[in-house]
Structures are given as C-alpha cells and as structure tokens.
From TrEMBL:
<dbReference type="InterPro" id="IPR018499">
    <property type="entry name" value="Tetraspanin/Peripherin"/>
</dbReference>
<dbReference type="Pfam" id="PF00335">
    <property type="entry name" value="Tetraspanin"/>
</dbReference>
<keyword id="KW-0812">Transmembrane</keyword>
<dbReference type="GO" id="GO:0005886">
    <property type="term" value="C:plasma membrane"/>
</dbReference>
<protein>
    <submittedName>
        <fullName>TSN36 protein</fullName>
    </submittedName>
</protein>
<feature type="transmembrane region" description="Helical">
    <location>
        <begin position="28"/>
        <end position="54"/>
    </location>
</feature>
<feature type="transmembrane region" description="Helical">
    <location>
        <begin position="61"/>
        <end position="85"/>
    </location>
</feature>
<keyword id="KW-1133">Transmembrane helix</keyword>
<keyword id="KW-0472">Membrane</keyword>
<dbReference type="InterPro" id="IPR008952">
    <property type="entry name" value="Tetraspanin_EC2_sf"/>
</dbReference>
C-alpha cells in the first residue's frame, strides 16, 4: 500500500508541472506531498506490525492497532474536509483558468498550456466553447473562431469557427 501511495503522490506532483499555470496556488500540490508522507509513515507502521507479529509482542500489536485507528480517523477527516471544500476548490480553479484564458494570444507560454490542456482533456474553454467569446484573443482576431486546439481530433478541416459547433 505504501508503494502504491508513493506512486500516486509522485504521479500527481509530476502531472502538476503540466498544469501549474492554471494552479497558481502552490498549495495545490500539498495533497500529493501529504500522500507521500502518509506512504512513508505506512511503511514504518507496516514494519512495526511485522516485527510485533514475529516477536508475538502484545504491546507491539496494541501499538500497531492504535496507530491503525489513528490513521483511519485521519482518513475519514480528510474525506470530510475534501467534501466540504470541493466547491471552493472548483471556484478557485475556474477563476484561475479564466484569468489564464484572458492572457491567451496564441504565442505566449500560457497559450501553449491552454492548447495542451484543451487537447489532452478534449475540451474547449472553462465550461464550453462559448467561454472564448469574452476573451481578448477572440475579439482581436475578428474571425468568430476559437483556437484550433478546441477542434475534435476526428475532424480533418476544422477551422474553429463558432458556426460549426459540431467540430468543437
């Protein structure tokens, strides 16, 4: 279990690097760091449990049980906090994404991240393609279209025009 948690934590941290322009709050990676710390603690606790079992120590097994109960309580608390604050996180991420979309010009690093995000997640805009109509880029191009990264992968001649929403 500790190895699995370590992998998940490292994967989240690695993935965070691709989306760090959207997650300007550096505390967004904190859950991944906590997962890795929990993995290390779980490994140590597992060793305590194994040693207590091999020695058939009542004190060691009692300590192992107490630690497992504390971890269970911490997991339930983390779940409840995640459930309670999910809307705040959603609002914060959407606000940050909107500000990054406002900076889109097709050339700067934020634009590259926006294109990458839209291609990887197969989406367009924060909620849908109409989000682009309020950006400076949309108004400056004057061609009533969204970036080509909004186009579906299976369409061949997509121009990003809003009069062809089936291609987005």
């Amino acid at each position: 279990a500790a190895a699995g948690l370590s992998y998940v934590g490292a994967y989240v941290i690695n993935t965070y690097k691709s989306y760090d322009n959207f997650l300007q709050d550096k505390y967004a990676v904190l859950p991944a760091v906590i997962i890795i710390c929990v993995a290390v603690v779980m490994f140590i606790i597992g060793l305590i449990g194994c040693c207590a079992t091999f020695r058939e120590s009542r004190v060691g097994l009692g300590l192992f049980l107490a630690i497992i109960l504390v971890i269970f309580i911490a997991e339930v608390s983390a779940f409840v906090l995640g459930f309670v604050y999910r809307e705040k996180v959603k609002t914060d991420v959407q606000g940050t994404m909107r500000s990054v979309f406002e900076k889109y010009d097709g050339k700067n690093p934020e634009s590259t991240v926006v294109d990458y995000l839209q291609e990887q997640l197969r989406c367009c805009g924060v909620k849908n393609y109409s989000d682009w109509t309020t950006t400076q880029w949309f108004n400056s191009t004057g061609n009533n279209s969204v970036p080509l990264s909004c186009c579906r992968r299976d369409t061949k001649n997509c121009t990003g025009r809003l009069d062809q929403p089936q291609e987005l």
